[in-house]
Design goal:
The chain has 33 helices and no strands. The chain has about 575 residues and is mainly α. The N and C termini lie far apart (about 60 Å). About 45% of the residues are buried.
Length: about 575
């Protein structure tokens, strides 16, 4: 079974919902409220409601399972442990309860209990059980047995890399850095960022500083974050870096949880992934990558207060603090606290005025609030810090170009659009935005058409880009050619008012006036009355419905379509 299928199986096997019925004397109101809260990942409310339900029916296994998952999602592992013990004591089978209890046993150094519990059938799943057993054996002093156990996992189809990785970490934990380096050097292993750091630390312990630097540079190049930059600087100075990924078995089990959580992070079951991430911090409160993973998952769940708290647990003196503070700002923004987000980013800028990404983040946040002048200044600061052109920088110039265009600084905007295309010549968003801008300004129409055609070829399912293609044909007076792409754009984005309005204009231009009126009415129905800055103008659309597009153009001082068509 491939690793993704294996991990997906684990996630599905331990889903939140159970098939057993709720007992009749349960507190139905609290139970239903808890289930509703759980569906939106409101772990705080869910835990309170399920606790109330358990007062009425303390032995109900389904409610205990749900309460257990709510506490675990909230990060209250101690309470989850209490409920998990009750479940196991009553003979109930629960992977989540086993996960909590086995992890807590590792946190408290009960290695003999872990082996006994695994032997007794207390299981989470083959991958987790196998790795946990290996670390428990290592702590028990039987290194050979531990290595053999990791080899058992390595020989399991679909999860070989997990076994090899933890075997390497375990060897390093015992001080056998040479053997650990050999294991992690396997070219078939695709190490994560944390795995690459572990390998670099191990190589440094062997005095292989150049190789350690190469390991990092081959993957990350010159574009490294502060943590990697500090690590590389130490290696360049010829200093050995302490091996701190798994200095002991407890840290090793934390790494088991993190490895699985990291592998599951792209799966749809966010709650199950979060359970593993929460256990990482329970076992190892200084596991910064675990904190960041937890925060990111909570952000995806729209539990922004919990995400903000998770980001806030990253120490300010840690190299990952920059990323954590920017993540916290993003969570603040998503929660609607925009001014607090801007203030948080500005604080990071004061602490790290040398980081372009901080000013880019500030510019993006201000631009989303239509504060284009302020955003442009932030992007100016970011661009000033760029040392040399790189392909990935296209987005910075593109974003600044938008702020320039929105503040009527077209020459500067055009220059930035061009720079973005020099860095990434086939980027469809840039091609579309610049091409569409030329169309609206009635400039460089032939070049605009070529740009937009390239953009459509790169993103054929983008409604906005397909709309641009139809619109440039319309602007060129090639009305018949405009119909197909404009209809396709409406298929892709059927409720967009601008695209429906454009299709109405195109229909009018080719003489399909009843269909044009229908599209204009549709466009009006899709305009949000609260959106006063939208591109679709309801007053103009209503006027077109009253007198037709030709009269509206005449009133605006533009030539009627027939004249434009004749000129074309």
């Amino acid at each position: 079974m491939p690793v993704t299928q294996h991990l997906r199986f684990l996630a599905l096997a331990a889903g939140l919902g159970l098939s057993s019925p709720v007992w009749a004397d349960v507190n139905a109101g609290a139970y239903l409220a808890g289930r509703t809260a759980a569906t939106t990942y409101d772990f705080a409310a869910a835990s309170q409601y399920f606790a109330q339900a358990l007062l009425r029916d303390p032995g109900n296994p389904q409610i205990m399972e749900l309460a257990n998952t709510a506490y675990l999602g909230l990060g209250d592992v101690d309470r989850a442990v209490v409920i998990a013990r009750q479940m196991i004591a009553t003979g109930d089978e629960s992977q989540i309860a086993n996960l909590v209890l086995l992890g807590d046993a590792a946190a408290n150094g009960k290695w003999g209990n872990i082996i006994a519990d695994l032997d007794a059938g207390q299981t989470v799943g083959p991958l987790f059980d196998g790795l946990l057993r290996g670390w428990a054996m290592l702590e028990g002093g039987d290194i050979a047995a531990a290595v053999a156990q990791f080899d058992v996992v390595s020989n399991t189809q679909g999860v070989q890399a997990f076994g090899q990785y933890h075997k390497g970490l375990a060897l390093a934990a015992t001080g056998d850095f040479a053997a650990a380096a050999d294991v992690l050097a396997d070219p078939d292993m695709r190490l994560t960022r944390r795995g690459l750091v572990a390998r670099a630390q191990i190589l440094s312990q062997l005095g292989e500083f150049e190789q350690a630097i190469t390991v990092l540079r081959d993957v990350f190049g010159q574009d490294v974050d502060r943590a990697l930059e500090e690590l590389i600087t130490t290696l360049e100075a010829g200093e050995a870096v302490p091996f701190d990924i798994t200095p002991n078995a407890t840290a090793g089990v934390a790494e088991v949880f993190f490895s699985i959580a990291n592998a599951l992070s792209g799966e749809p079951n966010l709650g199950y992934t979060l359970f593993y991430a929460r256990m990482v911090e329970h076992l190892r409160p200084d596991h910064v990558e675990g904190m960041l993973l937890t925060a990111g998952l909570l952000e995806q769940m729209n539990r922004f207060d919990l995400a903000i708290a998770a980001y806030g647990r990253v120490p300010r003196d840690h190299p990952a603090s920059d990323a954590a503070q920017l993540g916290r700002a993003e969570a603040l923004r998503k929660s609607g606290r925009v001014e607090a987000a801007i203030e948080a980013i500005q604080q990071v800028a004061q602490q790290r005025p040398d980081l372009p990404v901080v000013y880019v983040t500030l510019g993006d946040t201000l631009r989303e609030q239509d504060r284009f002048d302020e955003a442009a200044k932030a992007y100016d600061q970011a661009v000033a810090l760029l040392e040399k052109p790189a392909a990935g920088q296209w987005i910075i110039y593109f974003a600044r170009a938008i702020t320039y265009e929105r503040t009527d600084r077209w020459p500067e905007a055009e220059a930035d659009f061009r720079t973005a295309l020099e860095l990434n010549p086939d980027q469809p968003q840039v091609l579309n935005y610049l091409g569409y801008s030329y169309v609206e300004k009635q400039q460089n129409l032939d070049e605009a058409l070529a740009m937009i055609e390239r953009a459509v070829a790169a993103s054929p399912d983008s409604g906005y880009i397909t709309d641009s293609l139809g619109w440039v044909f319309y602007r060129l007076g090639r009305y018949d050619e405009a119909v197909a792409p404009m209809e396709r754009a409406v298929e892709l984005m059927p409720v967009d008012p601008v695209i429906n309005d454009h299709l109405g204009d195109v229909y009018w231009a080719v003489g399909r006036k009843l269909e044009a009126q229908f599209q204009w009415k549709r466009a009006l129905s899709f305009i949000d009355p609260a959106d006063t800055d939208g591109e679709a103008d309801p007053v103009r659309i209503k006027r077109k419905l009253e007198v037709g597009l030709d009269v509206v153009l005449q009133e605006e001082g533009a030539p009627p379509l027939t004249v434009a068509n004749d000129d074309g």
